[in-house]
Design brief:
Blueprint (H helix, E strand, L loop, with lengths): L1 H24 L28 E3 L3 H4 L2 H4 L8 E7 L6 H14 L7 E5 L1 H11 L4 H9 L24 H10 L2 H12 L3 E8 L4 E6 H5 L4 H14 L9 E6 L5 E8 L9 H4 L2 H4 L6 E7 L15 H31 L2 E5 L14 H16 L5 E4 L22
Parallel strand pairs: 2-3, 2-8, 3-4, 8-9
Antiparallel strand pairs: 1-5, 4-5, 4-7, 6-7, 9-10
Length: about 400
């Protein structure tokens, strides 16, 4: 028994040394060739992006003007905006919430849908409404994501990431079709907006993509670009390789920009980035309500971290994501309070075992059912912010010497 145990320890030690050697060698492997100064070749892609497709986030309040761009028809009492956050495998929860919300019968027809990372993958389905719920459920609870982090996808020796994006790309290609783009284009023409965020690693800033403008192309080239933007937004750095998308250098040359997970800079695309303050506060515009669907948990929780690479990565990403999310929520709530918006949030409840990298079918199905059941019974949304009531006018005073109004 002692000899057998000792033999296993020696084998484990050899395996550990081999792993250390392998990881130390990865820095010299798996690179993406960059020829910054040369005009990139774009097989099956768009050579000239339509105007308005790309919106740098720092220019969003001026460039988007959603208050104007959604005013195609007479104003309705409320305009509903849905922001889908990042969260990896936890996107199954958000998908479940949308499906359960449809079954409840109270799901709005959103004027604007925004998506970041895994939220970007769900955003086209959410934008098109409940008719696409079955397809959305298939993407997140159908088992197609189970091989995303499988050993068959391990690619650190050939790509600048631990895993290949092959399975993720196939999942996108199988579910994002020309028919979907045509329907998105029709809704876009009516003034609705579908926005997805990627991170331009070269410029170190988020980029907002108007996916309805992309879909309006209506051909295979538009489909390739649409799929590539979704792939880039969902490509967690270090986990999946970044995606090269067409862009322009500071000198004005056409270049291949390196884009990755939109969640690097923005956990979700909400009020400050998407709506100008002067438009929100205007009294002649319809009232707006923002729904933030968080594919994860908001508060920190204690949990013993597994000592393997996946456990450490997952816990680190979860912690980073929660901190970024809390800061963004506080910013959005403060902004909404100042400008008369309702803000509601749905998130995975505390105490639920959820991990950004747990793509096991049973785990994702469980999160999907949790979201669906909660939304169907209206137990999922919590108010983060409500418009402050306007202060009444001070009472009139008969004596001019009385200058202190009553609060």
């Amino acid at each position: 028994m002692w000899v057998e145990t000792k033999s296993r320890q020696v084998q484990a030690g050899i395996g550990l040394l081999g792993a250390v050697f392998l990881l130390s060698s990865l820095a010299a492997c798996g690179t993406i060739s960059r020829e910054y100064a040369n005009t990139p070749r774009w097989p099956n892609a768009v050579l000239a992006l339509p105007a308005g497709v790309r919106i740098p986030a720092r220019q969003a309040p001026q460039a988007l003007a959603l208050a104007e761009r959604t005013e195609v028809f007479p104003p309705i009492p409320r305009h509903a905006i849905l922001a889908l956050s990042g969260g990896g495998a936890n996107g199954a929860y958000g998908a479940g919430v949308l499906v359960g919300w449809s079954r409840n019968g109270s799901r709005p027809r959103f004027d604007v849908v925004t998506g970041v990372s895994t939220g970007a993958l769900a955003a086209p389905f959410a934008f098109l409404g409940s008719d696409w719920d079955d397809a959305l459920e298939h993407v997140y609870a159908g088992g197609g994501a189970r091989r995303l982090l499988g050993w068959t996808n391990f690619a650190a020796l050939a790509a600048p990431s631990l895993f290949s994006s092959g399975t993720l790309r196939r999942l996108i290609d199988e579910n994002i079709t020309l028919e979907m783009l045509r329907q998105i284009a029709r809704e876009h023409a009516q003034g609705r907006r579908l926005l997805v965020v990627t991170t331009n690693l070269d410029a170190e800033q988020p980029v907002i993509w108007d996916m309805g403008a992309v879909a309006a192309g209506g051909d295979d080239k538009a489909l390739v670009l649409f799929r590539n933007v979704l792939l880039a937004s969902a490509s967690m750095p270090g986990i999946f390789p970044p995606v090269l998308l067409q862009g322009v250098s500071p000198e004005g040359a056409s270049v291949a920009e390196m884009h990755a997970d939109g969640g690097v800079n923005l956990p979700f695309l909400g009020v400050p980035e998407a709506l100008p303050a002067e438009s929100i506060g205007a009294t002649n515009l319809p009232r707006r309500v923002l729904y933030i669907l968080v594919n994860g948990q908001v508060t920190a929780s204690y949990q013993v971290t597994r000592g393997n690479l996946r456990g450490i990565l997952a816990r680190s990403l979860d912690s980073w994501g929660k901190a970024s999310l809390r800061a963004a929520l506080a910013e959005n709530a403060a902004y909404a309070n100042r400008n008369g918006m309702d803000v509601f949030i749905a998130a995975i409840p505390d105490g639920i075992d959820a991990s950004i990298l747990n793509f096991a079918p049973a785990a994702m199905r469980s999160l999907f059912q949790l979201g669906s059941n909660s939304a169907a019974t209206e137990l999922v949304w919590a108010r983060v912010s409500a418009p402050r009531p306007q202060a009444p006018d001070p009472p009139k005073v008969a004596d001019a010497s009385m200058q202190n109004p009553i609060d």
